[in-house]
Amino acid sequence: MQEVGDQFAAGATLPFEIQLDDFSRRFSMRHGNLMWFLGAGASAAAGIPTAGDMIWEFKQKLFVSQRRASPEMVADLSAPGVRQHLQAHIDSSNSLPAEGAPDEYSALFEAVFPAEADRRTYLDAKLSGAKPSYGHMALASLMKSGHTRVVWTTNFDPLIADACAKVFDGTGALTSLAFGIGPAIARQAMVDGRWPIEVKLHGDFRWRRLKNTPDELRHQDKELRAVLVDSCRTSGLVVCGYSGRDDSVMDTLEEAVALPGAFPAGLFWLHRGDGEPYQRVSALLARADANGIETGLVRVQSFDEGLRDLARMVADLDMKSLDSFGKQREPRSPAPAIVGKSHWPVLRINALRVTQTPTVCRRVVCAVGGFAEARDAVELAGVDVLTTRTRSGVLAFGNDADIRKAFEPFNITEFDLATIELRRLRYDSSERGLLREAVGRALCRDRGLNRIRKRTADLLYPIAVDIPRLQPLKSLVPGLGGSVPGFPDLEWREGCAVRFEWAADALWLLLEPSPVFLNITLENKAAAADFGRRRTFNRYNQKLDALIGFWSDYIFGDGEEIYALGATTGVDASFRFGQRNAYSRRAAA
Fold first, then answer.
1. Section 196-206 average pLDDT
2. Which pick of 185, 257, 314, 410 has the fewest CB atoms within 10 Å?
3. Measuring CA to CA, which residue among 459, 451, 516 is closest to residue 482?
């Protein structure tokens, strides 16, 4: 019998996925009814490595010590080639879990440091000096306002408590219940309403595997998780920074999902990046959805950025602590331009500054519905118009006659210009989404490219591989296109993914050179991924620098203004790009 959620194992789009702005609005209306569950990813912005980071460090230590290799040989843990070497060594042991296995972290940790005292010392060093990030401060502010009452976490760090001490101006406001205090005390604290409450579950205990703990601790852990299950009967839950690879925690959430009427305020999983969540997470959310629970997979850039968006929507939130925190942050300024023959920058960044963006667009006030209906109106009219929907009306680029043709059936009452405010480009707003669509169209129109639109990025690839301007690219990579061996219908082109980011008070176009695949299906998806890995595994340092340099020059062109539509009347979107990438400056000696 097929389990609920198995249909998502192949990476299909999850039907319960919702946008961050949608979740932000829901969250703002559920005062005190949504608990939080934080994993290690929530502490990454504070400088504490995630379990994934430590897994590769453990593999590195095993490789160096067992192979008697030089540490410099595998120093760059972000390099695909280094990771390939390390994983091959781990696989050859035949005694450690496979890559991505649920017990990979705990097994590697014990293999590197068999003594529990050494594991504690290692973690203490990782936690030393960590300070709350913006996300922790925002969550503490939500706790102070009563919008968040309970935070569950598997983390050892004191970041939530430290953030609350700053926001509450003291240490007595937070009821912090660490593993070992007894489940009865945790349950009574909730019955008494001693909000806000932080409960540290220590899901995998970080330094030892659950199955290796004494019976008393295993029993206490089970009882504390029973408190979590009971809490899910009366409150919703937001999960953030947690991968779902801890069996004990996932067992608990699965038990809660099976209860009638559980998660009355919803179950929401904040997931970082475009990749699919761990299969067991998808299955959990699918079961929740099937059981009638309001369910949402919400993609966020990070814990900090997600909390920043949520804080904006909570009307009664005291922003004093957050504003003060922002002022205390170390000021940053752009690195100065390179002068002479100095040997820096030490790090080239794959970001090209967008030096010119549209400042106005057409605004249409009419009776059309939301974004989907506005898009359908354009398609039905058969016109070339770029559009989005905001509270103030439909925003659009295109010929005026085409825009009127699309929206006249919806009783146009106002037809004027709207200013595109720079502050609205700092986050994923409707205006930024409109500019993203426009810049993709402009690059395709003026640079001889095609585009595949993904959730957060556009995949650009050449219309033809014999374009003269592509000649420099041919010297950097083996071929510019073809078919994946064994899959004649699966074509590929050497291309570049692009997306907008805001940093240093400017809008940037991030470039990620990579092969782009055409005609991907569920049957050939694995072959495409394998081909992509083999083609890019050694792209780092000089090779990646050269590829970023090529695409930067290709997009910059002659520095000319490029247009999305080439509209002769009305309002078109135009862009210019900087010629030099962003880069780091040398640290002071």
1. 70
2. 185
3. 516
